[in-house]
Amino acid sequence: MRYAFKIAYFGRDFHGSQYQPNVRTVEGEVLKALKKLGIEKPNLKFAGRTDAGVHAFGQVIAFNSDEKIFPRILNSELPRDITAWAWAKVSDDFDPRRAKSRVYMYVTFCEGLDVSSMRKAVKLLKGTHDFANFTKKFGEGESCVRTIYRADIRIEREFLIFEIEANAFTWNMVRCIVSALVEIGKRHRSVEWFEELLHPERHKERIEPAPPYGLVLKDVKYDDIEFEVDEYALKTLHSRFREIVDYHGVVYKLFSMFI
User: Fold this and answer.
1) What is the DSSP string of 106-173?
2) Is residue 130 annotated as part of the catalytic site, yes or no?
3) Quick one: 86 and 180 in the same domain?
4) Which of 91, 110, 112, 243 has its Cβ near the most Cβ atoms within 10 Å?
């Protein structure tokens, strides 16, 4: 039997999601948990790779198991910064990488930014473009053509939230887009410059990615899979999230008293 799970994780203490020997990764911790549950050959797959420091709420994994595994069972063996919260039984050949779309969200402070100009730039993203200027593999010859289904910016209190959905993303693509948008927001660059970046055949310019800690893989969508939410596991996720928010909130308050 093969199962798909939605997992959330806090990326701060991981060297990315993909397995690497001798360093802590999300895949490595999931493999350890599955082994503790007696699953020696899980054929574990992830919907996509996230870099060091990047978070996820709706990352999708799939693995084989002779026994039925629920999110709360997997959570009993996972560390506290990884939580499974929904699941589905899938076909034996299911590969989570073959998704209909992926949704990313990036959060940063909005103070001092020209949000109106940033929104004009974001409107240019919808459709199919070559994102060679927005990838870490800049100039390596690999196709960077992707289709953006939607992209928008919203403001919540002191935060700017950028959300984007596409059929797929190149390496560092969202973080590079955010860097360019922030340059426009700071009035260092124009909307016309951003439009030129979407045409690498006539304008080549390497964009450095924004910091990873503001990025979260929000969701991965499929046409034919309906995930069942485990309410107990979701409560566990909420509790673990609250612990992290309380910790960092107190630390922020402590140091803000001296700055």
Assistant:
1) EEEE-TT--HHHHHHHHHTTSEEEE-GGGSTTTTSS---EEEEEEEEEEEETTEEEEEEEES---TTH
2) no
3) no
4) 110
Task: Report in angstroms the alpha-carbon separations of 115 from 46, 105, 109, 127.
Answer: 35, 16, 11, 22
d(CA 84, CA 235): 11
| pLDDT confidence tier of residue 140, bands split at 50, 70 and 90 | low
| Per-residue model confidence as pLDDT tens digits over 53-103 | 999 999 999 999 999 999 999 999 999 999 999 999 999 999 999 999 999
Marked catalytic residue, from 51, 81, 219, 230: 51
Q: What is the pTM of this model?
A: 0.93
Residue 9 CA to residue 82 CA, distance in Å, equals: 4
Q: Check which CATH number belongs to the domain holding 85 and give it.
A: 3.30.70.580
- Domain extent at residue 57: 2-99+222-256
Check residues 225 and 252 and name the one with the higher pLDDT.
225
Confidence of residue 137 (pLDDT cuts 50, 70, 90): low
